Amino acid sequence: MQRDSVEPQVDAIPGPRGREVVEYHHETAAPSTYVYEFVWDHSAPAIGPFCTDVDGNVLLDFTGHVGAMPLGYNNPKILEPLDEFDLVDPMKIAGQDFYLPATEVLEDMDVPGPADLMDRLTGISSQYGMDTVFLSNTGAEAMENALKISFDYTHGKYTITCEGAFHGRTLGTLSLNRSKEVYRRQFPEIPSVHDIPFCTDRSCSPETCDCGFFFDDTSSLRKMLAKTGYVNGDEVAALVIEPIQGEGGYRFPSDAFMQEIAALTTDHEIPLVVDEVQSGMGRTGEWWASDHYPIKPDVIASAKSARVGATISTEEIFPSEESRLSSTWGAGDIMSAAKGVLTIDAIEEHDLLDNATERGELMKELVNDEDLPGVTDFRGKGLLLAVEFEDKKLRDQVQEEAFNRGFLIMGCGTKTIRLLPPMDVTEREIQLAVELLAESVEAAQ
Length: 445
Ligand code: PLP
Prior knowledge:
The chain is α/β, with parallel strands linked by helices. The protein has helices at residues 16-28, 76-85, 114-123, 139-154, 171-174, 220-225, 255-267, 334-349, 352-370, 392-404, 427-444, and strands spanning 50-52, 58-61, 132-136, 158-162, 193-196, 214-215, 218-219, 236-241, 272-275, 299-302, 309-313, 375-381, 384-389, 407-408, 410-412, 416-419.
C-alpha cells in the first residue's frame, strides 16, 4: 500500500467476513459494550490513516481509534525502533519490575520503560512545574487517581464538575459525568459533586455569554463559592474540567470562561484537575489542550495516546505515605511504556505539533470553502476537529454515507462528528477527507 496514492475502496461494508468476526465477538462480549461496524485486518496492508478490513475494503480512518492512535497505522517511527529492540514477546511487568528498563540511566538498556515515559511526561508538563507521575492503565484510572490525590492533599469534601463532562466509567469518575444519562443512571455516586455550565461559545465574553455561566455581572462559579453561596471554597478538593469537551460534543470554551475558572481556583486554592485523556499529547498542536488557555492546571490526567493511564502533578500534591497509591499493572507492559516514549519522541523529532496545527487549519479552510448544506459549524484546534450538523438525523446519515465510501468517522455529543486524523496526516489525505465528507453530506441531503 502506497501512502501517497492509495484511496478508499469499498465493496460491501461490513462484508461477510467482517459480520462473522463481529458475531463471534459478541457471542461472549458484554452486550452493552461498543459495537464497531468495521474489522480491520492487522495482517493486511495499513499505513497512516489507511487500513484494510478483513473483507479487503480499503478505508480512510479519521476516527483515530478515539484518539488512541495518534500516529496512524504502522507508523515506521514507532515500528522500526520496536523492531530494533528485538523483544522476544511483550513481557508484562509488575511490582518491583517497575524500575526497568531505564534507558536514560543504563546505557546497555535499549528499550525505554516506565521511568523513561514518566521523564517524557514531566518534560512536556514542565510549563506547569509538574515533576511527578503515577502510571496506571486507562483514562478512568488516571482520573480516579487525580481525584484521590486532590482529596488527600486538600482534605476537601466537594468536587466541581462541568455540564456535558465525561471522565470515565468507574464508579468514582461516573459521579463527575454530566453527558449521556445512561452512563450514570442509578449507580451510586460520591457525595457533594456540584456542576457548573460549560462554555459552549468559544468566542463569548462575560457580556455576550448565553450558556448560563456568566450572568448579572458574575458567574455561576463565583456565585457558588461566594460567602453567600452553597459551596465553601475552602472545602473543595478539586475543580475537574476537560479543557476541550470530548464526548460532550467537541466543545471549545472561550478564554473568558477559562480565565474565570483560573481566577477562582487560584483565589480559593482549589486544585485544577484537567482531563486531557482525549485532548492531550499533542493532538491540538500543543502538548496539552490546556496550553491554549489562560489556565495553570495542578493535575493532568492523560491516557489513550500515552498508551497507559498517567496522573501528572507536582511532588507536593502527591501523597508521600507508602501504599497510598498503587496498581499491579500500573505501568502497562513494556510495549505500552515503550510505545508511549516513542510516540512523544516522534512528535518532537518530526515537528508533528506544527503539522497538527497546519493541517487542522487547512481542513477548516477547505470545509468552509465547501459551504456544506446542513453543516452549522466546523471547529477545531490542531487535529481535534468537529463538524456540527443541523440535527442528529442528518449527522447519522452523513456518518453512514461516509462509511459506505470507506471514510470512517465517529459521532459525539448529539449532532456532531469528530475527526481525529493521525498527527502526521498529509495535505493529500486532508483533501481526500474533505471530498469524501462533501460527497457524504450531499448524498445524505
Ligand atoms: N476522560 C475522557 C475525556 C475520555 O474521553 C475518556 C474516554 O473516552 C476517558 C476519560 C476514559 O478513558 P478510558 O476509556 O481509557 O477509561
